[in-house]
Amino acid sequence: MDEKAIYGVYGKSGFGREVMPIVVDRLAKGSNSATIFLDDAKSEEYLNEHKVMTFEEFEEYPSLNKQVVIAIADGKVRERLANKCEHASIKCISITASTHLRMDNCVVGEGAVFCDYTTLTSDIVIGSHFHCNIYSYVAHDCVIGDYVTFAPSVKCNGNVTIGDFAYIGTGAILKQGTPDKPLVIGAGAIVGMGAVVTKDVAPGAVVVGNPARPLVKL
Asked: Where are the transmembrane segments (predicted)?
């Protein structure tokens, strides 16, 4: 059995290809490691000079140290893949770009991805498998659930509470709440690209615009 560490990026779409260089930079610079893409619908042997494997091939790979970063934007899919890894006794790990800034008293669950130029300020609690894409920030006194996704350039101001599986679109702005009345984004809610959220968003709702309002389907 090989002692060499092998790091798998689960997902080879755009986000996976953005995450892979961070994995290489932060975890796999040494000769005693390897990096691969995981893709359940494998269609090529190599992508950007990294081998592509199915999950089953990864399971069978002869290494005692196999770890996975899940790079899939859909939180529900992330949950399914995380459970799949846990069932196979393969550890899901967090990855943090070198330009990420983190200040005081921040608690973050396992499986997080923090891309370049992201920021956590102070006194923040974040659940498992959080995705924070480039140029996004989370300000003071925020509480974020599990499997939440921030697209690029999300501005999450202080005293905001976000439920599990919420998706916050590119360039969205979440207005600052107060200690006694935080702004609440409900579980499974979707905040559209460029939306400015000034009021609570109900669980499962889709909001768009400035100020953000529920999406009306024609």
From this structure: none
